[in-house]
Write a structure and sequence with these properties.
The chain is an all-alpha fold. It is 78% helix and 0% strand.
Length: 154
């Protein structure tokens, strides 16, 4: 699969644009993570029963770190699909050259080489969905933490 079709290039271009939305998800999650990190010492010092609130704030930080890893993967995939959407004359690359480079760097198992563009896009969209799920989970955990602060008073 060294010479992508026009349809493959169009699919890759659309995927790149969709994956670029992961940056917006990451900005939200990063803000939530920073807020949770800043809340930890405040909760420890000021809340009469800090353990439940500390646990949920810590969980929000851990979820934020998981989202960060997914955001890095999604951003990488977005840039790869941008390259795959261009022809070689326009500075792009073929899937075969991408597979070769990833294999040479030890970043992709040999059995994944040669996959069709649609399968690659499905995998990348799965990463984007997981990233968004982490951000939603983080919001839920922070909401629970806020509820604990209000309900659990001393």
């Amino acid at each position: 699969m060294s010479d992508p079709t026009a349809d493959d290039r169009a699919t890759a271009a659309v995927a790149a644009h969709l994956l670029s939305q992961g940056a917006m998800v990451h900005r939200l999650s990063a803000a939530l993570t920073v807020a949770s990190v800043l809340a930890l010492p405040i909760l420890a010092l000021l809340h009469p029963r800090p353990l439940p609130a500390l646990a949920t704030a810590t969980l929000a930080v851990v979820i934020g770190l998981a989202e960060l890893w997914l955001a890095l993967r999604v951003a990488f995939d977005a840039r790869i699909f941008e390259q795959l959407a261009r022809d070689e004359a326009g500075g792009g690359m073929t899937t075969a050259s991408f597979d070769g480079a990833m294999g040479a760097l030890g970043l992709m198992p040999a059995d994944k080489a040669g996959r069709p563009t649609a399968a690659r896009v499905r995998g990348a969209m799965g990463l984007l969905r997981r990233q968004a799920t982490m951000a939603v989970a983080q919001l839920v955990v922070i909401g629970v933490s806020g509820w604990i602060l209000v309900v659990v008073r001393g």
